[in-house]
Amino acid sequence: MDNTSGAPDNQPPHPTPHRPSMHGFVPHQSGVWPVVAVVLAAGASTRMGAPKALLPWQGQPLASYVVSELLRVPPDQAHHGHDGYVLRLERIVVVVGHRADEVMASVPADPRVTIVVNRDWEAGKSGSVVAGLSGVPVGRHTLVTGVDQPRPASVIQAVVANHMEGTARNDGRLVTIAGALGRRGHPTIFSPLLRDELFGIEEATLGLRAVIARHEAMVHTFDTGDEMALLNLNTPEQYGAAYELHGRTGN
User: Fold this and answer.
1) Whole-angstrom Cα distance, residue 67 to residue 53?
2) What does the angle CA 213 – CA 40 – CA 249 come to, to the nearest 5 degrees?
3) Would you give per-residue pLDDT tens digits along the chain (251 residues)?
4) What are the CA-CA distances from residue 234 to residues 53, 63, 150, 152, 216 (Å)?
5) DSSP letter assigned to residue 246
6) What's the rounded Cα separation, in Å, for the pair 147 and 61?
7) CB of 135 within 8 A of CB of 36?
8) Are strands 175-180 and 56-57 parallel, antiparallel or unpaired?
């Protein structure tokens, strides 16, 4: 077979993935594994035709719902498995940009919630991720989700617990992605070992997708058993259908 990869004949066409250096990583102390959630709510929602963060969902704006469900995840959740630990969702960073004042006003006031304004939000989602990371202390696992990906607290709690259980077992994972029905969805959790790479993402080079692709062998897809892990609200049609099933108060 012809070698068209440009690699020498005795080399694999793609380099074997390797774990990043430990630079910037602060090990957990006393079995505590801190997690910070970054909620992306800065975009103009061009395909939707209206700011997604302000669309109604369960009787409140989407931004309020997404943050409220994150706040419902216990800040200190004991895990009694192979390796005992406590996972702590210690902070929620909400990145705003387009119509920032209105979106900020819709976010629940809570000591664990921090608002970051991305003034360059028009440049794309990668810039909002980097802006959000500025509010994530060194050594934290980072959960990334969009304001257009409403998830109940049960889904968030399950994927965080799975990520921490794998981390405690030293199973080699760097990324955990929530999924269902054999497909990947959201949220996604990144190890603190990827902090430097996350700060270096750019829209032109596929942003977070490029980081995930580089470390595919160390990405774990967790089957949540809940189709809500796959929900994305990008168009009026998607929003309308999802609202009828999940977005009405009392659904």
Assistant:
1) 11
2) 120
3) 333 333 333 333 333 344 454 333 444 555 677 899 999 999 999 999 899 999 999 999 999 999 999 999 976 655 544 455 666 789 999 999 999 999 999 999 999 999 999 999 999 999 999 999 999 999 999 999 999 999 999 999 999 999 988 988 889 999 999 999 999 999 999 999 999 999 999 999 999 999 999 999 999 999 999 999 999 999 999 999 999 999 997 66
4) 12, 15, 12, 19, 26
5) I
6) 10
7) yes
8) unpaired
Q: What residues form DSSP beta bridges with 92?
A: 37, 113
Q: What are the tokens at 74?
A: 């216990």
- The Cα–Cα gap between 89 and 33 comes to 9
CA dist list (Å): 73 to 67, 152, 168, 216: 10, 10, 19, 28
If you classify domain 32-247 with CATH, what class do you get? alpha beta
C-alpha span between 41 and 229 (Å, rounded)? 18
Contact 186, 99 (CB under 8 A): no
The DSSP result for 79-128, as a single string, is E-SSS-EEEEEEEEEEEEBTBHHHHHHHSPP-TTEEEEE-TTGGG-HHHH
